[in-house]
Design goal:
single chain; mainly alpha; globular
């Protein structure tokens, strides 16, 4: 009986995965035809397939399968995004990236927290916890969007890089606020800064080390004995980079993003692959990243709890409106405008204000708070899902239109 039950579970999972692949491929085709980022269509399709609609897919958010897809999928999408960045562009805008990813998260959380306190009528501690959860932008959402919508290089790479780097800050802020809210410990600015620096430095070092080692094995003139196995090497290295950093209490997502930057800029460090092998690797990475975002966003859609959302939907929309229209624009202007080296134009900053979606990472933080029974956790999860739906369905779908209006769309 135990074997039979295991087989039935395996059959159910296999059927669900097959359905996600089939429907997701059709959804991607539709998204391409109507010229909107596919993540928005995947989210809607997931809602339709989920237990609160057609009931064809029911994979729980706390299941092992979902956690595997989320961890590996988000890691691989970040690796793909990092590989698309160019060091010569990042040299021009690194100050903006660092400031928005650190101070910017605090500004966003501060404005949103005050708004949540007054709009929802909740204690300041719970409002701060909610604001910290949704303060960061989501690289798993933004990287695919900028892969599909060709935006001016330095703008796209700034938004993608900052979204990858601000996750560590948001996680530290969330759990620091939680510790204060439950009275477990007093807030220490010094400890928080040290923790952030430790996570960042270790994550960056792990990514650089794994990136250099992988490039050595697949692109070195003498040592590239695994060149024909480059796709498998990248898979293993993405997993290794994540767990190397995570095992050292650092940001695994930051490590895989930096790993991608290293591998994508390997020519800068004297490595060069043969044309055929490089093309094979590029095709594998783009296909794998597509499959990962297909699974992540369809599953995220199936897990949207409309009963939970319904408890706070009106006030939740008001809080998210403040996040989208006040907090995040204020963050961009306050953090990017002083960067004289980058010389941001008003059009570029307006675009960066709008392309700041909430997605998988805030959803994961909200799920952790629910599991820990944190103060106000159900309300926080409700508003987080409202933020995900609003930012992806409104901002992601209008990215190309806005870029065209502002003259930031690359025609080539």
């Amino acid at each position: 009986m135990e074997t039979s039950a295991s087989i039935e579970i395996a059959r159910h999972i296999l059927l669900s995965c097959g359905l996600i692949l089939a429907v997701g491929t059709l959804a991607a085709f539709v998204a391409q035809k109507i010229r909107i980022p596919d993540v928005a269509v995947f989210l809607v399709v997931g809602i339709a397939l989920g237990p609160q609609a057609l009931g064809l897919i029911d994979i729980k958010a706390d299941s092992a399968l979902n956690e595997i897809i989320l961890l590996f999928g988000a890691s691989y999408i970040l690796f793909d995004g990092g590989a698309a960045l160019r060091l010569q562009v990042l040299k021009q805008v690194w100050i903006t990236i660092v400031v928005i990813a650190t101070i910017g998260v605090l500004i966003t959380a501060g404005i949103t927290g005050i708004a949540a306190h007054f709009i929802l009528g909740i204690p300041l501690g719970v409002a701060a916890l909610l604001a910290a959860t949704i303060a960061s932008t989501d690289p798993a959402t933004l990287v695919p969007i900028f892969r599909q919508v060709r935006i001016r290089d330095r703008v796209a790479q700034t938004v993608m890089s900052e979204s990858a780097f601000n996750d560590a800050m948001a996680a530290i802020l969330t759990f620091t606020v939680l510790a204060v809210a439950i009275g477990g410990e007093k807030f220490s600015l010094t400890d928080s800064i040290v923790d952030l620096l430790k996570q960042s430095v270790i994550g960056i070092v792990a990514g650089i080390a794994l990136g250099y080692f992988a490039a050595l094995l697949i692109a070195h003139e003498k040592w590239a004995f695994l060149a024909e196995y480059a796709p498998v090497v990248t898979l293993a290295a993405v997993i290794a980079a994540y767990f190397a950093a995570d095992g050292l209490q650092a940001s695994g997502f930051m490590a895989v993003f930096v790993f991608g930057i290293m591998l994508g800029n390997k020519e800068t460090f004297g490595f060069k692959m043969e044309a055929g092998e490089a093309q094979k690797l590029d095709e594998f990475v783009s296909t794998t990243a597509f499959i990962m975002r297909l699974f992540i966003f369809i599953l995220l859609g199936t897990q949207v709890d409309f009963v939970l959302i319904g408890q706070h939907w009106l006030k939740g929309i008001a809080v998210v409106a403040v996040l989208m229209l006040v907090a995040r624009p204020a963050t961009v202007f306050l953090c990017a405008l002083p960067d004289r080296r980058a010389r941001w134009s008003s059009r570029e900053m307006l675009f960066m204000c709008w392309t700041r979606e909430t997605g998988v990472i805030p959803a994961a933080l909200a799920g952790l708070l629910l599991g820990m029974k944190a103060p106000g956790a159900p309300m926080i999860a409700s508003v987080t899902f409202i933020a995900i739906l609003m930012t992806i369905l409104i901002q992601a779908t209008t990215t190309e239109w806005l870029a065209r209006k502002l003259g930031l769309l690359e025609t080539d």
